[in-house]
Amino acid sequence: MARRGAPLRTAVPALVAAAALGLSACGGGGGGAGGGEVTSLRVLDYYNNEPDKTVYAQKLDECGRQAGVAIEREVVPGAQLVAKVLQQASSRTLPDVLMLDNPDLQQIASTGALAPVTDFGLSADGFQEGVASASTFEGQVYGLQPVTNSIGLFYNVDILAQAGITPPTTWDELKTAAATLTQGERYGVAFSAVADYEGAWQFLPFMWTNGGDETDIATPQTAQALQLWVDLVNSGSASKSVLNWGQADVKDQFAAGNAAMMVNGPWQFPALDEVAGLEYEVVPIPVPRAGQDVVAPLGGETWTIPRTGDPARQAKAAEIVACLNTDDNQIALATDRTTVPTKTALRDRFVAEVPRMAAFTDIVQTARSRTGKLGAEWPAAATRIYTAVQTALTGGATPEQALQQAQDG
Amino acid sequence: MADRAGGVAAPDRPLVSVAAPVPPRGPAGGWRSPRGRERLLQLGFLVPAVAYLLLFFGYPVVQNAVMGFQEYTTRTFYTGEAPWVGFDNYAAVISSNLFGTALLNTALFTAGSIAGQFVIGLAIAVFFQRRFPLSGTLRSLLLLPWLIPLIVSGAVWRWILDQDNGALNQFLGVLGVADRPGWLTSTSLALVAVIAVNIWIGIPFNTTILYGGLQDVPRELYEAAALDGATGWRAFRHVTWPLLRPVVNVVLVLGVVYTIKVLDIILGLTDGGPANATQTIATQAYHLSFQEFRFGEGAAMGNVLIVISLVFALLYLRANRRALAGEGR
């Protein structure tokens, strides 16, 4: 998921970086057309939390050695990456290899700052369709994403066992289970309905699986999904605080035993594993009718090759991007970062090697990308979605009305 | 740099005259050349400040004003193309459903914050005028909220105000309040909660400035008033308040300019939610520019804020001039 390590609320300093955008034009003199031998490459990403930071440091160095270049890596906090990239784009100081959160790729590709990876003989053939579509802008592939993730339903094994409840698979089961599991200070389920993109992202599996669509959210299908959330909160099975919880807060509630189930992603595994006495499992998010496949959103970051104006450097950069996406490296990155490889052919091998990722590997199969339909218009749609969710959850309007209001702007 | 150069060239000249150049009145010592030298010096002192202002205040403001009339998107950063769209951005921003809400919230947030900060700040300042053991220490401790980074205090307050496990609701529970108010999750309470936190942050500023103002009120006046039978509230009403007025004006106007643009504390507490209940012009401008990447519309929204601040800044300048004139008397 985007910016998960640094949700926007904790990353206001990004403003400071963004404020500097206006002055960026005084940057260096551009990509340098020196044709000499390439000895080092500049890499920019936002993996500033462990284990991601170290995993990528090792993998990038390894790929650098294979390509015969040294890696000069710069890591910025998640919320500052786009501001940094825009600043570098206007001062022509873009790095040789650039990581982008997948829903941002089309936004950045639309500026013209990226080179299609096909120019360097790379392609996204064999990648999961949704993953490839997130890295595609106007028919051209601009990035290769080695691993992806999504969200599922985490449950506390002990609490469910004590209550004699099996993990819910349908909406009705979810409502019943959540109601039964709600006891005393503990809520049945927790999710994030916060007023930013995290809230919209968490709502997507419910909306999409029921046939809702981000191009027009004022539909009965989306309203039914929103009604489910409203019912969970109004019945007391979920806390009203979901309105103000980011995904990290949701994880904290689950870890503290304040929620028996939660909607969250595999990047929470390391933190949850450290909680003594917590045993948890993951299943796909419940679907409206039994037997349906859940349509969850795809997370993860894609690796791109900015137009630096130096063909030799770009060719080397392409080698790095290719290296990060070899079969072995997709598996290695997925294993170390509890994510899922994006090449569909690797699934069985991956699940055999890392059984705990089976649920998420399943979820990813039918998942789709946030920008697949709307591209650079996605942020506006996401704003409409979380606004409607918040309006309905606070009781400001019925789900139908809230969605209509948000769609009308 | 400028200071040192000035020190070498004109060791006897007080630096104060540079900050507020007073037109030479009456006979100056020498005529032509000393006067010319003085002007040159004055210019020399002015240039760095003016250059700084132009570069770091003028340029961004002008750039922002221009941006408000352009279709400025992520694309612009790479291509440099920003088509002129006239007042389209303003039309889009002002006609949006959210503008009215944001404007009203901004007004309520500013008025509520200022009223609370000022009244409590003044009460504390008056209180600390008496000397008592540890008064100095306590007064410095009051500055704490000011010293804590806003991100940190935002996170702590978010925890305190949490509906289920927050310290405040736990405390209310002990007092026997069964109903747990959703401080940050109820559309009717969230703005109140955000204002309360902002008041907490603003009290040190108000206390400090008002305390300074109170120190300037001559003791003899209180003694004289006491002889006439005016003590306590009457002394405050008829001695303290009139003499404090210029400082009060400055504090209020500065407070408005600081408060109207508050962003981080709102983002940290509610992110503008729930359901836009705490969305202000500032948070909306931030959202448009840095989350939806509609920089043109964000700039237009920001300019609305700048114009409102400007009105208060002009009021401040007037109040300030009056305060200075008052001092001169």
From TrEMBL, chain B:
Residues in coiled coil: none
Intracellular or extracellular location(s): Cell membrane
Organism of this sequence: Pseudonocardia humida
Keyword Magnesium: no
Record Pfam families: BPD_transp_1
Record keyword ATP-binding present: no
ABC transmembrane type-1 domain segment(s): 103-316
Family per similarity comment: Belongs to the binding-protein-dependent transport system permease family.
Protein name: Sugar ABC transporter permease
SUPFAM superfamilies from the UniProt entry: MetI-like (SSF161098)
